[in-house]
Amino acid sequence: MNAPAAPFAALLADRLTTRWLGRTFEWHAECHSTNDLATERARGGAPAGLVIAADAQTAGRGRLGRTWHSPAGENLYVSLLLRPGRPPAEIPPLTLLAGGAVAGALRALGLAPRLKWPNDVELPEAGGWRKVAGILTEMASAGGEALHVVVGIGLNINTRAFPPEIAQRATSLARALGRDVDRAAVLAGVLAAFEPLYDAFERRGPAAAVEAFEAHAAFPAPCRVTAPGRPDGRLEGTALGVDPDGALRLRDETGQIHRVISGELSI
Ligand code: BTN
Fold this sequence. Notes:
Elements: H1 8-15, E1 25-28, H2 34-43, E2 51-54, E3 76-82, H3 93-108, E4 114-116, E5 120-125, E6 128-142, E7 145-155, H4 173-177, H5 183-204, H6 206-214, E8 223-226, E9 234-242, E10 248-251, E11 257-260, E12 264-266
Parallel strand pairs: 1-2
Antiparallel strand pairs: 2-3, 3-7, 4-5, 5-6, 6-7, 8-9, 8-12, 9-10, 10-11
The structure holds biotin.
């Protein structure tokens, strides 16, 4: 008979190398959304560095009102509570920073991820690129300062077969590596990659987040952006890079440069 697996928190504690991030940790067998739990804890005064993870989410959510596929026993659904003490306008780049951290952790596993602005981590599969992780950053602010920020990360680890609606677009570490992957080790790797990038963000601001993103980003041309704020909801052109505030810079066919603050890139 196999020995029962140690509780996830103990597995993580064995692997954690960070100074402050994840040193306070909550594991839940199931919750609505780890971002909601982290927000509740933030309102209750929980300190920066709290990390909440769940085995399953019943209402995991992504950007733009989408749901995040969150079955039990397979993947990582995790939220990081931060208190950056910076103006709200400087917070969106934390999504880019988290992408840089996830990409760095996946590189350490021998994979070759790329980041797609603003929040997708992708891996090569079947001649194309598929999403392995997504990031959802949420914040509360008052008096011109972010009170707390929750960075939610969904990372597909051991799911091999996805529901039909995402089957052609999603992948997992297990699919990429051809073996089951230790979730606690991956979480420890992500937190170890995140912490120094965030320390740099606290010292230098959003520029540090943009650098973390650009180290792994793909900006192939031409591309299309679905941007809800635009008159026709979309924009086509060449992505040039990311401004210091996290906005995507795009040149259209007339040569005009646009800044896209929120949207989705199709490449
Ligand atoms: C996206 O790609 O649209 C973002 C997906 C973010 C999913 C994670 S899973 C942990 C945290 N809790 C949630 O409800 N969402 C984020």
